[in-house]
Amino acid sequence: MMTDAMISDAVHDGAARGRARAVLDGLWRPGLEFLGSEVAILGGAMSWVSERHLVSAISNAGGFGVIACGAMTPERLAEEIEATQALTTRPFGVNLITMHPALDRLVDVCLERKVGHIVLAGGVPTGATIKKIRDGGARVVGFAPALALGKRLVKMGVEALVIEGSEAGGHVGPVSLTVLAQEILPHLKSVPVFVAGGLGRGDALLSYLELGASGGQLGTRFAAAAESIAHENFKKAFMRASARDALTSVQLDERFPVIPVRGLTNAGSKAFLACQAEALRRFQAGEVSREDAQLSIEHFWAGALRRAVIEGDVETGSVMAGQSVGMVKVIEPVATILHDLVEQAVDALVLRDERASR
Asked: Is the pTM of this model over 0.90?
């Protein structure tokens, strides 16, 4: 039986947490209003992973799911959007790669199906694409790896930005989120800015909200969620890994550029180095042209992400993961992940208030 003192403490704790949650909701209110979600947390768009099941699970749990279009054809994207809409009535978005040869038609597919938010990634979008999306009734999100580009995108009509640090999984830029946040957040306040890269806890996200962010984007935590269709081997690889296992791909020679991709080191990583070394040797020996040598390097990882995610080949496949992978210790439902992130942020706010009142 609870004593009067225990009841008093519980009521006090509940009141304190209620106040803290109100503070949190105030901090990310611009993100909530922009996304139309209950918590301002987006699912990072991950090829082969961010499909109907994971996207709808994130949105149904109060977050904001995002379909990764990747190399999908317009017909395939239409199918995925409709399947997601059958699983959730809540808002979700679609991530489109600006270099996709059928970008205009992909935008049409999204607009025709009343997708509310389109995320443009993989390059600087044209003003015409941004205008087409906005005229069609959807909202536009862009990626800003630097302050100057962020300001430029806003002038072009982009309505929200994601700043993603090099701690993220997959294709990454050279700058950490810690630095990007300091560079961008104090100076770009006209649109919601969502932070991404290495986020695994709610108290860490809170620190960025207090710097001016409107929400966060997580990929790695969700890739290993119960609702993710990723192979069991893929998820177990995440659970075994530490942050130090998630490294970016290495470029051996500047004449043969390699786009940095962060993933778990495995036999495939070592074989990629050997592939580059052999291509370099053959080029220097005059056996192949520079173009053919570059193609052999670029084709090395063809299909490797699918092999890891869908087939479970975590030895030679591409196991893309952010450095927050070290925080993945158990396979949990998306709802649990989102709940814990919010509770961690609330805990931090309560603790701060307690310290201030001492």
From this structure: yes
